[in-house]
Structure formats: C-alpha cells, structure tokens
Amino acid sequence: MTRVPADGELLPWLEPAWARLRQAQAADRLPHALLVVGARGLGKRRLATLFARALLCPTPRPDGLACGVCADCRLSAAGSHPDLARVAPDPESKSGEIPIDAIRELTERAVLTPVRGARKVILIDPADRMNAAAANALLKTLEEPAGNTLLMLIAEQPGRLPATIRSRCQLLKLAVPPSDQALAWLTPVLGAAAAPRLRLAYGAPLRALEEFDQATLDSRDTLVRSFIGIGRGELDPVAAAVAWNAVGARLSLDCLADCLCDLLRLMASPAPPRLADPGLAPALGAFAAYVDPGAAQRLLRRVFEARGLLESTVNALMQLESLLIEWARVGQRRLNLKETK
C-alpha cells in the first residue's frame, strides 16, 4: 500500500515554512514574489499550492489552511479559480521549457484586478525551466510588481535562474527534515523499507515514498552490479548503456551519482562513512584503494550536469554511453595500477 497524502494535508516537515508564510501574511509583509526552493521530494509545489488556496479562501481554518468547502476552494481545487494561475512547460514541447508566450500571458494577467477577492496568485512551476527569453520577459513584472498579485516561483535548481530574477524574489528554502521525523511519517506504510528508501532518497520523504517501489529497487540493484562490472573491466560500457537507458535516464543517473558519491566518501574518510547504500561498501572499497579521486570527482560533475539536462532534447543514450565509458577508463586505471604493484 502506498500512502497518498491528502490533497489539503500540510506535511509535518513543511510546518516551519508554513509558519513563516503565515507570519508574513499576518504582518502584511508578504513579498510580491517568492522563490520556493528545495530538493526533489520535499513538497515545494504542495506548499505553494496550499498557500495559494489559503490566500484565496475567504474563511480559512484556524491553522491558516483553506477551508476546502467554500466556492473559492472548490474553484481552486478544480483548477478554474479566476485569480489563481499556473505557468508550466508546454506538454507538447520537446524542449520541456517555459516559453516566452506563457510569461507574456502571465504579465498581462498580473496587472488585472482580481475577480473574486483582494488578491491574485500566479505559480510558475518549475521556474528553472524558463528559457532565456521567458526569464527576461518576467523580469519587467518583477521590477514593476502589481500590488495585488503574488508570484510564486518553484525551483529545484535555482542556480539555473538568472541572478536578476533571484535577487527580486524572497527566498523560501525547504530543508530536508530530520530523519526521525521523516521515518515517523513513512514507517507506518513502508515498514522496515522506510529507512533504506529514505536513505536512497537523500532524506526526501515524498521521493522515498513515490520513487523507490520494489521494482525500482530491483532495477537499481541491477544498475549497481553493472557499475561494478564496468569498473572491473568485466562489462562493455557501450552495451551496458543500452540497458541503463532502458531502465530510464533519471534512475540511471541518480544511481551513477550515488555510486560515485559513496566511492568518494570511502576514499575521503578514514572511519566508515555514512553511505547512500551501505551494502556497496565492500565492492566500492576495493575501487577506493586505486581510483584517482580527481577523476572520480570530474565524472561526478559530469553526471550532475547530465541530470540537469534531463528535460532537454539531449540524447540520453549518448550521455549514458559517454559517462559509462569514462567510468570504465577510471576503473581501467585501477586495474593498471594494481598490475604494477
């Protein structure tokens, strides 16, 4: 059974950010633009949506959440509230970007008087998918904001936004919750699997819940064995890349990053480090004795760059081939060093 959080549920680790938003609202100090950032699986868009609905609800609950039953709440839940707009990438576009036309339409709406209440709310999600032209078009709205409009930009990679955009937004950063809080939420559903899944999700509870079912864990185990085999020179990286691509680029790149991070942790720490996958310690420990840390770090940077291009038109198979070939070279250096000792 998978626990699906209720539509209006404020997740426990979001409560500090929610308190900040409520305090700003109560003091009439809400900014004209908020930049909500955090890792995947923390609930950024859930928080933004809950706050948008609360602002548009005329009779919010004592905890500040929308009542969920009034006409405004029903319109918000149906996606048809005239004072709530969402800007997202065009689903028909191969680029996965938010185009300039979408931002131009947004700016036209931002200057209009609210239809039902005192405020309009516009969500841009994910804001880090705006192309350069769209970001430039948004800048004018941020420089000359309408007093009755709140812009909420949601981003997993805020560094991809121009500095001129970031500087004109108030930052609201969501932190990874303490593990005991996350496990208290996950364990009733996942049982003993909660801890390893949370570890693989880097502490993000929603990611642990939604991305690491048993089939995904099995696929990941296959990728890990392949990673080790390539590093040992037992598998052809080009042939392996086909299988990695079939599993999915996101899972493959996440797994490759996990393996390299754990390898670097083993190389850097004299004491047993905390690993994303403790079961890999023996196999990766053998590599740690020979792999050049600089080469592993350079490869890891390339993996991170590849993850940032997942929504682009870059050929995922070619990316995986290149990355696995480089890992094979790093592993081959290990073998060559071992033979000379």
Could you characterize what this model shows?
- By secondary structure, the protein is an alpha/beta fold.
- The protein is 54% helix and 7% strand.
- It has a 5-stranded parallel beta sheet with strand order 2-3-4-1-5, sandwiched between helices.
- β3 (120-124), α5 and β4 form a beta-alpha-beta unit.
- The longest helix has 25 residues, at 316-340.
- It starts with 14 loop residues before the first helix and ends with a helix.
Number of strands: 5
Helix-strand makeup class? alpha/beta
Mean pLDDT: 89
Distance between the termini: 53 Å
List keywords for this structure.
341 residues, alpha/beta, five-stranded parallel sheet, 54% helix
Topology diagram in text:
Layout: H1 15-26, E1 33-37, H2 44-56, H3 71-78, E2 84-87, H4 100-110, E3 120-124, H5 132-143, E4 149-155, H6 163-166, E5 170-173, H7 179-190, H8 194-200, H9 205-211, H10 214-231, H11 237-247, H12 249-268, H13 281-288, H14 293-308, H15 316-340
Parallel strand pairs: 1-4, 1-5, 2-3, 3-4
Helix pairs in contact: 4-5, 8-9, 10-11, 10-12, 11-15, 12-13, 12-14, 14-15
Briefly characterize the structure.
This protein is of the alpha/beta class and 341 residues long.
